[in-house]
Amino acid sequence: xxxxxxTTLKSRELRWVQLEGNKVVAQKSMLNYLTERLxxxxxxxxxxxxxxxxxxxGRILRVTRKE
Length: 67
Hints:
Mean pLDDT: 92
Structural class: mainly beta
Number of strands: 6
Strand order of the largest sheet: 1-2-3
């Protein structure tokens, strides 16, 4: 099984997608409370998610685990 993290512009969410081969077997919507569209995602060397938002006042967001 493979996991993908995908940003979406239209639905303004981060989507966790689980694949078996080329078939989607599960999806979970995350961060859908954000009012900005998500343009891109990266993972930094410490495992944090770096999100780029879209728009005139676009931001770079760093998402880490809650401890």
